[in-house]
Design goal:
Number of helices: 2
Strand order of the largest sheet: 5-4-1-2-3-9-8
Largest sheet: 7 strands, antiparallel
Helix content: under 10%
Low-confidence stretches: none
Shape: globular
Number of strands: 15
Order of helices and strands: EEEHEEEEEEEEEEEEH
Length: 243
């Protein structure tokens, strides 16, 4: 029996033509019959680090009876010189979230995955308290179950008031232990009971993990790193996936 939350995540490798660049995390989001891959915007493009991939490759499960069966699936980032992904922007500036549509008819017919939907986003009556237990589902440093092609999870709690934009920006804080390669991972909270709208995926999608945070004035000899991370609010996906 596979935990369905593990089937939402995808390991991302970025490429410049045939040259491998970085590893990252992502996940599937579905809306109105359209399928998207979600990750951090800096996975698609990051000028400060001179990261300029032209395609992504994700690993897909292709045999429901054998999780060791997989194949690579390439997703171009540009067509005719124009980017194919959508990235977030609000009054505070760039949002480190990007989404790109996947042609689901190009997927192998036997592909096994789970996708979050708008029903997995927090609603007005959902209670999300500071200190609530979370999971971050991803591929830190590219690490994963290389036989079954499954991600790993980190446990965390919400470390700032959920619903308030931390420092006026569109993210909240978590205290998960994270590494490079976790960028783009879904940040989720378990939903008790059974809600048929969420089908066999009883999780609430709260955010998209972006990066570790630190204090520039920290004395690196005397003070440990904060151990805090930014997670952008997942409701940006409703804007990015709009037709």
């Amino acid at each position: 029996m596979i935990d369905t939350i593990l089937l939402t995540a995808a390991r991302i490798c970025t490429f410049a033509q045939q040259r491998a660049l970085t590893n990252a995390s992502g996940f599937f989001f579905e809306r109105a019959g359209r399928l998207f891959l979600v990750t951090s915007r800096h996975v698609m493009l990051d000028k400060p680090s001179r990261h300029f991939p032209d395609r992504l490759e994700i690993e897909l499960h292709i045999d429901p009876d054998n999780m060791a069966g997989s194949t690579g699936f390439s997703i171009p980032l540009y067509r005719g010189g124009k980017s194919l992904w959508r990235q977030g922007l609000d009054t505070a500036g760039d949002i480190d979230v990007a989404l790109i549509e996947i042609d689901r008819y190009a997927l192998p017919p036997s592909t096994v995955y789970r996708a979050f939907t708008p029903e997995h986003l927090p609603g007005p009556f959902d209670q999300v308290e500071v200190g609530s237990s979370l999971l971050v589902v991803g591929f830190p440093l590219g690490f994963h179950d290389t036989l079954h092609h499954m991600p790993v999870v980190r446990q965390a709690v919400i470390a700032s008031s959920f619903g308030l934009r931390f420092k006026g920006e569109g993210y909240f804080l978590t205290d998960a232990r994270t590494h490079r390669g976790t960028s783009g991972a879904p940040v989720v909270m378990r939903v008790p009971g059974h809600d048929p709208r969420r089908r066999d995926l009883p999780w609430m999608l709260l955010g998209i993990h972006s990066a570790r945070l630190d204090v520039g004035t920290r004395d690196r000899k005397l003070d440990e790193a904060l151990g805090l991370n930014s997670a952008w609010y997942a409701d940006i996906l409703m804007t990015l996936s709009a037709a």
